[in-house]
Amino acid sequence: MKELHFKRKRQKRPSLTISLSSIVFVTFLVTFAVSAAAVFIIVNLGIVKGSGGQIDASQAILYLGAFIIGVGALFSFIISKLVLKPINRLINKINDLASGDFASRMIPNELIGRIPCFRDLTDTFNKLANELQNTELLRSDFINNFSHEFKTPIVSITGFAKLLKRGNLTDEEREQYLTAIEEESMRLSYMATNVLNLTKIENTSVLYDVSSYNVSEQIRSCILLLESKWSKKNIDFALDFDEHIIKANEELLRQVFINLIDNAIKFSLDNGKIDISASIKEKFFMFSITNYGLEIPLDKQKKIFNKFYQADESHSSIGNGIGLAIVKKIINLHSGDISVKSDNNKVTFTFEIPI
What is the CA 36 to chain-centroid distance, rounded? Predict the structure, then answer.
């Protein structure tokens, strides 16, 4: 089995090396210039040579050495304070982030901020803080929504169970209540499974259990698995693919197809249609699924693959913002890419992975 490892390329920052080297060089140059000036003045004033109350050579060298050390320490302190101030500010801001203050941002210093490496440091920190703040907002929103989504089926199951316990029900009513309990239980199971899958996949950095299999058969199997959902909305499927054999993690890709097909069914209109196509081009497996109905606004298309994000802010549709996050992570594990396009009252998800 071939394992795929993904490592972020370490960036070399020559500007940082040059900047710090320049600071050391300037400190040395200034110290040397001041010391040279002091030597020049001492020699020209004749302090070293002569007799009487004048200082002898050994004393002059001693005082001069102390003077040079003092000047060097002074300039080193001034320049290091100037350079280390933004680093100290960064450490304080990092401590703010660690304390939960995700609104903390760095403001570039007027002088040091002009140096590319320090400007890059400021921009990177602010980007990190912004991502953490967005994730925290999504997490909080997810907890509220998930609690609501989780509580609703529990309340339904409890209510129908109480009605069944009372008795005196017709066979039709009993069947109706049992069906409702079954559906709500499946809904709870689906949500719990998605959360567990996301946690498991997020902790995975290596693609494992890669095997050759018929992906076309897998797609048809996933469609049949969701038959109860698309038959209820009377949705037709237009399938356009031949038999394709690929090398991938079969179980993980099954989750991808189920999530994408389920998502398409969820947002399709009644009596609608879903188009699915698959092909192999230049050693890449290409998959596309299109449903017709409401469009996804452009500003939300970039966010729908984020954890806990739901494009439907009214939360009128069943979902918890986890499915597409799972899909993206699995596609990334396969060294692939996924995108979404929405226009003309349709939404198309497309992904490709190397075969």
Answer: 56
